[in-house]
Design goal:
Layout: E1 9-13, H1 17-23, E2 40-44, E3 49-51, E4 55-58, E5 65-66, E6 69-75, E7 81-89, E8 111-113, H2 120-123, E9 130-135, E10 138-144, H3 152-160, E11 170-172, E12 181-182, E13 187-192, E14 196-204
Parallel strand pairs: 1-11, 3-8, 4-14
Antiparallel strand pairs: 1-2, 5-12, 6-7, 6-11, 7-8, 9-10, 9-13, 13-14
Length: 207
């Protein structure tokens, strides 16, 4: 990935307006009793990382997975962004949670990471980022980052209030609703002109 050392990768939940709208009154129910007042994060450990072009094994018990097309900020320092990179944050389909069960987000290989990092000068304003998700060549989702609850700058500022990011850490901007589903044998392409294409193929896990 352009020689940038990888640190910790953090995902962000509920950062698309559509996610909040989909939850509706559930946010006011126990145990949460209200929408989150700060960013809701989770960690993607190193065992989940997959390179661009890698085949990702899907457990035998899983018929299909959800594609989580997003972009991550790659940190140069605690407060400075080195650039942006494509991500495919795969997960097992589940009901809506503020904090999904960790095991559903941390399976081996379940985070595709693009190989092209572009600075803001090269990639443009994150507010106008748009991704296209294709499965076997067919367009399944368009993700518009103009629909973020917290912009990239605001997300970084709010996260920095309660934790310190290090060089090489990556902070995902979030995944929108309407995540397409894919199954073993499918090819997933996530594309943005400035960031290239992140491609992964799903395969059935060996017995």
């Amino acid at each position: 990935m352009n020689g940038v050392a990888r640190g910790t990768v953090y995902g962000t939940l509920l950062n698309f307006r559509g996610e909040l709208e989909a939850l509706g009154t559930k946010m006011n129910e126990a145990p949460y009793k209200g929408p989150p007042q700060a960013p809701v994060l989770y960690v993607k450990p190193a065992n989940t990382f997959s390179e661009n072009g890698a085949a990702i094994a899907v457990p035998a018990r899983v018929a299909e997975v959800e594609v989580g097309a997003t972009i991550a900020m790659v940190m140069k320092s605690a407060t400075e962004v080195a650039g942006y990179v494509l991500m495919n944050d795969l997960s097992i389909p589940q009901d809506s949670f503020f904090r999904p069960p960790v095991k559903l987000n941390c399976l081996d290989g379940f985070l595709g990471i693009g190989e092209r990092i572009r600075s803001r000068n090269e990639a443009g304003d994150p507010a106008v980022f748009k991704l296209e998700v294709r499965i076997n060549g067919e367009l399944k989702q368009t993700v518009r980052f103009s629909q973020l609850v917290r912009s990239a700058d605001k997300l970084l500022a709010d996260v920095s209030e309660f934790m310190t990011l290090g060089p090489g850490d990556m902070l995902m901007l979030g995944c929108d609703v309407g995540r397409p589903r894919a199954k073993p044998g499918d090819r997933i392409d996530i594309t943005m002109p400035a960031l290239g294409t992140l491609t992964n193929t799903l395969v059935a896990e060996a017995a």
